[in-house]
Specification:
Chain lengths: ~325, ~190, ~425
C-alpha cells in the first residue's frame, strides 16, 4: 500500500461549552465534554454496573422522571438499552417510533418534541437520520436531550460505553492506540469515539478505503487517517470494526463487498499477525463475514458482549447525572 | 481549644474515640439476639473505616463478624431532585438474607441517610434483623429512626456543625463541634462527602 | 419634480476617481452638477450630508423575489423597502420557483408590477432555458427586448454543457450576459456544507471545492469558444477567483461576483452560529461558506476588481428555515447587511473603501451594461448617503425585508444608510 495521509488538525470554532457536571443540560456529542466530565460518567457507570449485578436491579433515583425515547430510525438494541436503563432507575418510560406516530402525518420534529414536552417528558432520548436534529430540539424545547445517534454526526453514548469497556478490560485509556476500521466517513460511532478516546489521552488511527475516509483537515487532535490496514493495525491496543452498508456499493464508493473483505476484513490471521493482544470492539449490528470474521467477533479478545452490557450501565449513569434539578 | 477558628471545640479526642469503639464492640457482641451471623455494613464515607475498626475489636473478643461490607445509599436519597452527588461503591461480600446486619455510621442526625440505607438493604436482601451503631448521636431526628449502639450522645444546636475526623480519611482521630458565625449552616452531615 | 441638492458630504465616485467634499445636484431624474460648494438654487430641496459619504446608488446583480404563493413571503414592496434601506437603487431580480420568468410577457409583467409596487429600479433576470429545465433555450431575444438585463437559471447551473454553449452563443445577439452559478450538480450531490474540517466534525455531506472549480473551468472554456458574455454567480473558492483573474488577464470578457456573507464568514459559522449553536440553518448558503483561506482570496478578488459584490438576497420564510439542517432551504436575507459588512471589512483593514464602493457601483454596472453606478453629470439620479462610522448589531427582527434568516444575526457591523435616492426621489430617509 502506498503512503498514508497524516492529517494536521484544523482549528474549529468551539460552541459555548457547558460547565462540568452537574450543570450540563444535554448530551449531544462528546466534543464539548472535558476529560473530567467523561471520567465522571465512567466512574458513575461503575456504580450502576453494581446495581445491575444485584437480584433486584432497581433503584429509585429517577422516580417521578419521565423519559421518552423518540426514534426516527429503527433500532432495537439502543432503544431497549435506554429503556432498561431508565426503568432500572425507576423512571417512567415511553417509546415513540416514527412509523407509529404522528410524524408520518407530516408533523415537524419541533412540533413533535413540543407535544411530548407538554405531555410531561423530562428527558428526550432521540435518534434521527439528520445530523443536528437533537441540537434543534435542545435549543427550542425545554426538555433535556440525549442524542442516541444523529445521521453521520454523533453517538455519544456508544463512545462512552466503548470507553468504559476498554477502561474496564485494559485499566486505562491514556497512551493507548485505537484503530477504527471501516466506513469512517458515514460513521457517527467513529466520530464520537475519536472525541472520547483522544480527550482521555489515546491516539486514534482511522482506516478504510480512501472513498470512505474523511478528506481534508481533521477536526480532532492526535488522529491520523490511512488507507493502509497493515499500518493501522500494527501495534494497536484496541481495534474497532464498523459496519459496512450495502448502499455504499450502489453509490459508486466501493466496487464490491468481496473486495472490501479481501482488503479490509478483520480476520483472525491479520489480527494475530499485527496486534495479537488487541481488544476487539464493534458497535453492532455486525455483518459477520464482511467487516469482521466470526472467529474474531467471538474470540477471546472480543469485548463485544461487554459493550452491550456496559451500555445499560453507561446510559443509567447519564440519565442519573442529567435527571437532577427538577428537569 | 479552637481548631479552625469560629469557636470549635474537641468533644472527643483519639483516646475517647478508641474507648467508645471498644465499648460499642462489647455491646454488639453481648446483644447476640437470635445468634444470626453478624454482618457489619459501613455507610460512606467514614462509616466504612469505623466498621473495619469494630470488626477488629470484635475479632479480639472472639466474636468476629461473618463479613464487613460498604454501602452507598445515594441512589435512595430523598433529595435527588436537588443534588447529584458522586456515587461511591457498594460492596457486601455475602448474602444478607437471614443475617444480622449492623449498619455503622459516624454521625446520626436527621436519620435520612439511615432511612436511605435501609431501603438499599431491603433491595439487597432480607436480613433477619437490622441494627444501627453510630459514633455520635447529635439529636434532631426528622424520621422515626433510632440507634441501637451509640458511642457518645452529643446534644447540639441546629446551627452547630459536628465534624468527625478519622485517621484513615483525615489523618487524625477527633470529633469537633463548631458554631460558625453567620446564618444557620446547612445539614453538613447529610450532604455529599 | 423639484431639484434636490445633497450638500456637504464626502463624495466618492469610483468611476471617475472623485473623492472629496462636494455637493451633488439632481434634477429631472439625472445628476446635474457635482462640485464643491455649489451655489444655491431656488426651489431646491437640500439634503444635509455633513459627516456622511455620498456615493452612487448601489446596484445588485442578483436578488431573489419572494415566493408568490405565500402570505408571509417577501413582496415587491417589502423587497424594494429593504433595498432602499440597504442603499440599493437598482435590483436585478430572479425567481427560482414558479412562475418562471422565461418569456417576454413574464418579463414585462414583472417590470410593470415592480414599477407600481417599488420605488427602486427593478431589472428582471430571464431564464436561460425554458422552465429552467436545462433542455431548450428560452426566448432570449424577446426577453432582452422586453427589458431582461441578463439570463440565468439560478441555483440550477445549466446541466448540459452543450446547452450552456448554445446559450452563450445565442445570447451574443442580445448583447446581454449569461449568468451561470458554477456548481457541478454531480460533485455537489447531497452536499450541505463545504467539504472540510467542519463538515467532517458535524457529519454533514460535503460540497467539494472541486465542484465549483470544475464548473468555472467548463463555463470559461465555453465562453472562450463562443464569444458569449459570461457572468459567474457568487463564487466561494480561492481557485475560482484565480481562474477568473487569469481569464480576464488573458482578455476574456468575463465577470464574476461574491456575496458579502462570503467575505466576512467562513465554515466555522456552521459549527458555532449566531447563538453559539451548531447547525444553525441561517448558515446554510449556496455556495457554502468555505475556509478562511478562501475568504481571504475572495476579499483579494474584490480588492483588485476581479469580483463585484452582490447581495444574493433570498428572503426565506420562517417555516423554510425552522427545521433540520438537511431540510432547511438555503439562502439568507441580505440587502440590509451588505454595506455594513463591507464597511466592517474596511474598518478591519481587509478592504479599501474605494474598492468596496467600486464593487457595488461601477463594477456591477459595467458587468451588466447598466446605466448608473456613477455620479457624473448626466448619470441617473441614484445616490446613497451613508455614515460610515456607527457600529451596530444585526437584529433581523427589525428589518424591512420579510426574510429574517441571516447568518449575521447578532454580529456587529459598521455604517448606516442615512438616505437613498432613486430617480431623483428620496426612497429612504433616516
Amino acid at each position: 500500500m502506498t503512503q498514508s495521509v497524516v492529517a494536521v488538525p484544523a482549528p474549529v470554532a468551539p460552541r459555548p461549552t457547558a460547565p462540568a457536571w452537574p450543570g450540563r443540560r444535554h448530551v449531544l456529542d462528546l466534543d464539548d465534554f472535558t476529560p473530567a466530565e467523561i471520567t465522571h460518567v465512567l466512574d458513575t457507570a461503575a456504580s450502576m454496573k453494581e446495581v445491575l449485578a444485584r437480584p433486584i436491579k432497581q433503584v429509585p433515583a429517577l422516580r417521578g422522571t419521565t423519559v421518552v425515547t423518540l426514534f426516527y430510525e429503527a433500532s432495537t438494541r439502543t432503544r431497549v438499552s435506554f429503556e432498561l436503563a431508565a426503568k432500572r432507575l425507576g423512571a417512567d418510560v415511553v417509546n415513540v417510533t416514527a412509523s407509529a406516530s404522528s410524524v408520518v402525518k407530516g408533523e415537524s420534529l419541533l412540533d413533535t418534541a413540543d407535544t411530548l414536552r407538554a405531555l410531561g417528558a423530562d428527558i428526550l432520548v432521540m435518534r434521527h437520520s439528520a445530523a443536528g436534529a437533537p441540537y434543534l430540539v435542545a435549543q427550542r424545547v425545554a426538555c433535556r436531550v440525549i442524542n442516541a445517534g444523529d445521521g453521520w454526526h454523533a453517538h455519544p453514548t456508544q463512545a462512552l460505553l466503548d470507553l468504559y469497556t476498554v477502561r474496564e478490560r485494559l485499566g486505562r485509556i491514556a497512551g493507548l492506540r485505537l484503530a477504527i476500521v471501516g466506513d469512517v466517513l458515514h460513521s457517527r460511532v467513529a466520530r464520537s469515539a475519536v472525541w472520547g478516546f483522544t480527550k482521555l489521552g489515546a491516539r486514534v488511527t482511522l482506516c478504510g478505503p480512501p472513498t470512505l475516509l474523511p478528506t481534508g483537515p481533521l477536526p480532532w487532535p492526535a488522529t491520523e487517517v490511512t488507507h493502509d490496514l497493515e499500518r493501522a493495525l500494527a501495534g494497536a491496543d484496541v481495534v474497532m470494526g464498523l459496519r459496512l452498508q450495502r448502499e455504499r456499493q450502489q453509490a459508486a464508493l466501493l466496487p464490491s463487498e468481496r473486495e472490501y473483505v479481501r482488503l479490509y476484513g478483520l480476520t483472525a490471521e491479520r489480527l494475530a499477525r499485527l496486534c495479537p493482544d488487541a481488544l476487539v470492539l464493534h458497535p453492532g449490528p455486525m455483518n459477520e463475514g464482511v467487516e469482521i470474521m466470526p472467529a474474531v467477533a467471538h474470540g477471546p479478545r472480543s469485548a463485544i458482549a461487554d459493550q452491550v452490557t456496559n451500555g445499560v450501565a453507561v446510559r443509567m449513569a447519564l440519565l442519573y447525572l442529567l435527571g437532577g434539578e427538577g428537569a | 481549644m479552637a481548631v479552625d477558628g469560629a469557636a470549635a471545640r474537641v468533644v472527643m479526642d483519639a483516646e475517647a474515640i478508641r474507648r467508645a469503639l471498644v465499648r460499642l464492640s462489647h455491646e454488639i457482641a453481648e446483644r447476640r439476639g437470635g445468634a444470626a451471623p453478624l454482618v457489619l455494613v459501613g455507610l460512606r464515607t467514614r462509616g466504612i473505616p469505623l466498621a473495619a475498626r469494630l470488626a477488629n475489636q470484635l475479632a479480639a473478643l472472639g466474636a468476629a463478624p461473618l463479613a464487613v461490607g460498604r454501602l452507598d445509599p445515594t441512589l435512595y436519597r430523598d433529595d435527588l431532585s436537588r443534588v447529584r452527588p458522586r456515587l461511591d461503591r457498594t460492596a457486601i461480600p455475602v448474602d444478607i438474607a437471614g443475617r444480622r446486619v449492623v449498619l455503622v455510621d459516624d454521625v446520626l442526625y436527621t436519620g435520612r441517610t439511615v432511612r436511605a440505607a435501609l431501603d438499599a438493604l431491603v433491595d439487597l436482601g432480607r436480613p433477619a434483623v437490622v441494627e444501627l451503631a453510630v459514633l455520635v448521636d447529635r439529636g434532631h431526628r426528622e424520621l422515626p429512626i433510632r440507634a441501637d449502639f451509640v458511642g457518645k450522645n452529643l446534644p447540639t444546636h441546629r446551627q452547630e456543625r459536628v465534624t468527625v475526623r478519622l485517621v484513615e480519611v483525615d489523618g487524625r482521630d477527633e470529633v469537633v463541634i463548631e458554631r460558625p458565625e453567620g446564618p444557620a449552616v446547612s445539614r453538613r452531615n447529610e450532604e455529599v462527602q | 419634480m423639484t431639484a434636490l441638492c445633497i450638500r456637504g458630504g464626502r463624495v466618492i465616485d469610483p468611476a471617475s476617481g472623485l473623492d472629496g467634499l462636494a455637493d451633488v445636484r439632481l434634477h429631472d431624474g439625472r445628476v446635474v452638477e457635482v462640485g464643491p460648494a455649489l451655489a444655491a438654487a431656488a426651489d431646491e430641496v437640500v439634503l444635509d450630508a455633513t459627516g456622511c459619504i455620498v456615493a452612487p446608488g448601489f446596484i445588485d446583480l442578483q436578488c431573489h423575489l419572494g415566493d408568490a404563493d405565500h402570505d408571509d413571503a417577501e413582496t415587491l414592496a417589502t423587497l424594494g423597502a429593504a433595498a432602499a434601506a440597504g442603499g440599493f437603487t437598482t435590483l436585478c431580480c430572479l425567481r427560482e420557483g414558479d412562475p418562471c420568468v422565461d418569456d417576454a410577457a413574464a418579463v414585462v409583467a414583472l417590470r410593470e408590477r415592480a414599477a407600481a409596487e417599488t420605488r427602486v429600479r427593478v431589472r428582471p433576470l430571464g431564464a436561460v432555458t425554458r422552465g429552467r429545465q436545462g433542455a431548450e433555450l428560452a426566448e432570449l431575444g424577446a426577453m432582452a427586448e422586453a427589458g431582461a438585463v441578463a439570463f440565468t437559471d439560478g441555483a440550477l447551473s445549466v446541466r448540459s454543457a452543450r446547452v450552456l454553449r448554445n446559450a452563450l452563443s445565442y445570447s451574443v445577439l442580445t448583447g446581454r450576459p449569461v449568468v451561470e452559478q458554477p456548481c457541478d450538480p454531480d460533485l455537489a450531490q447531497g452536499g450541505l456544507a463545504h467539504e472540510g474540517a467542519v463538515a467532517t466534525h458535524l457529519g454533514l455531506p460535503g460540497i467539494p471545492a472541486a465542484a465549483e472549480e470544475f464548473a468555472v473551468a467548463r463555463a470559461l472554456a465555453l465562453a472562450r469558444a463562443t464569444g458569449g458574455r459570461l457572468h459567474l454567480g457568487p463564487l466561494s473558492t480561492a481557485a475560482a477567483v484565480e481562474q477568473v483573474r487569469a481569464a480576464r488577464a488573458a482578455g476574456l470578457a468575463v465577470t464574476a461576483a461574491v456575496t458579502a456573507h462570503h467575505l466576512l464568514l467562513d465554515e466555522t459559522a456552521l459549527a458555532s452560529g449566531p447563538e453559539g449553536w451548531p447547525y444553525t440553518t441561517s448558515t446554510k448558503l449556496l455556495p457554502p461558506l468555505r475556509t478562511a483561506a478562501d475568504r481571504a482570496a475572495l476579499c483579494a478578488g474584490v480588492a483588485d476588481g476581479t469580483l463585484v459584490v452582490v447581495s444574493d438576497h433570498w428572503p426565506r420564510r420562517a417555516i423554510e428555515k425552522d427545521c433540520e439542517y438537511v431540510y432547511a432551504a438555503p439562502g439568507a436575507s441580505a440587502l440590509e447587511s451588505v454595506l455594513g459588512v463591507l464597511l466592517e471589512l474596511v474598518a478591519r483593514g481587509e478592504l479599501a473603501l474605494d474598492a468596496a464602493l467600486r464593487a457595488l457601483t461601477v463594477g456591477p454596472a459595467a458587468a451588466f451594461g447598466l446605466e448608473g453606478g456613477r455620479l457624473a453629470p448626466g448619470a441617473p439620479a441614484d445616490c446613497v448617503v451613508f455614515d460610515p462610522e456607527p457600529r451596530w448589531q444585526v437584529e433581523p427582527a427589525r428589518w424591512r425585508s420579510r426574510g429574517r434568516s441571516t447568518p449575521l444575526a447578532g454580529h456587529w457591523l459598521r455604517g448606516r444608510v442615512r438616505a437613498t435616492i432613486a430617480g431623483g426621489e428620496i426612497v429612504y430617509r433616516v
